[in-house]
Specification:
With 319 residues, the chain is of the alpha/beta class. The protein has one domain: Rossmann fold (3-Layer(aba) Sandwich), CATH 3.40.50.1820. It is built from eleven helices and eight strands. Strands 1-2-4-3-5-6-7-8 form an eight-stranded mixed sheet, sandwiched between helices. Strand 1 and strand 2 form a beta hairpin.
Length: 319
């Protein structure tokens, strides 16, 4: 699709905004301030980076400014070695998102795109009914980590013979950093996270970032996507979903680790929602089926309400 080739010619601004004595890195593609809401991209993890979602900047070529950012603890934002579970909480990342919107001056006209853990965070934000939120995209995300853990058992049982045995042996022994565990883990990832061969460079960048800087992921999630032992293991946003008051698009893949059972509560409880399944994708339809993905996104964004243009510009923060 042409817009994916054209976004590199769009205006780009990078910087950092202060947050509680730390810094949140952002990248803005396109020029905000018109009637089209900015699309704010909330990445997964927790503890990953924006890199694997970079191609969403292509939406800027179709008229929607796009803001990527790295959540605290990874990428271009402040890294902290602190493994205190009391620090790394959904509330922290929710407050960071609120701060970013205000600091960039886009809190009056924006759409949230949350992928995986980012979808949980975006739903949590949307449930507070912020006045400037025009729409919500929840991509490949669980509404409940207890549901996620239950469904992981189903997917693990379907792995090739011997793979889950290796995984469980290392999980029981606490040796999940062993190369044998990593090799077996990638069998699962190849089926349910990214089916492309080889993995795209953008996804590789985020994957390696977590491997190099695992603090947030380990504390909140655990050693792998399918072995959730961290503070999110019992976390859910199901009880908040009925409060979401904006049009919502659900995205998932037929081979997604976020299978239908973990997505269904979004469909059941959000009042204005549409669910699109990508038949050839697992966890990353924006990379696995980009043509259909961009068509779906543009159709959704084009149907959202727009704010009348104002003379107010965005606040710019260099960095």
């Amino acid at each position: 699709m042409a817009i994916r080739r054209e976004w590199s010619t769009m205006a780009v601004n990078k910087g950092r905004v202060p947050f509680r004595g730390f810094q949140t890195w952002y990248r803005r593609t396109g020029t905000p301030g018109g009637d089209a809401p900015a699309v704010v991209v909330v990445h997964g993890g927790p503890g990953s980076t924006h890199d694997y979602l970079r191609n969403l900047a292509g939406l800027a070529a179709a008229g929607w400014p796009v803001v990527h950012y790295d959540q605290l603890g990874g990428g271009g934002s402040t890294r902290l070695p602190d493994a205190d579970p009391g620090f790394w909480t959904p509330e922290l990342f929710g407050d960071e998102l609120d701060n970013l919107l205000v600091r960039l001056g886009i809190d009056g006209n924006y759409v949230l795109y949350g992928q995986s853990w980012g979808g949980v965070l975006a739903a949590r934000h949307a449930a507070t009914r912020p006045a400037g939120l025009r729409g919500l995209v929840i991509a490949n995300a669980p509404a409940s980590y207890p549901l996620w853990r239950r469904e992981m058992e189903v997917l693990r049982a379907q792995l090739p013979p011997g793979v889950d045995e290796v995984l469980r042996r290392h999980e029981a022994a606490g040796t999940t950093s062993d190369q044998e565990y990593t090799d077996a883990m990638r069998v699962f990832y190849a089926k349910h996270v990214c089916r492309l061969r080889p993995w795209p460079a953008d996804y590789q960048a985020s994957f390696l970032e977590v491997a190099d800087n695992p603090t947030v992921y380990a504390v909140m999630n655990g050693p792998s996507e399918f072995h959730v032992t961290g503070t999110l293991r019992d976390y859910s946003v199901i009880d908040r979903l009925a409060s979401i008051a904006v049009p919502t698009l659900l995205i998932s893949g037929c081979y997604d680790e976020a299978g239908p059972a973990v997505v269904q509560p979004f469909q059941d409880h959000i009042p204005d929602v549409r669910w699109v399944m990508f038949e050839e994708s697992s966890h990353l339809p924006h990379l696995e089926e980009p043509e259909r993905f961009f068509r779906t996104m543009i159709e959704f964004l084009g149907g959202l309400p727009r704010r009348a243009p104002t003379s107010e510009g965005m606040v710019t923060h260099g960095g």
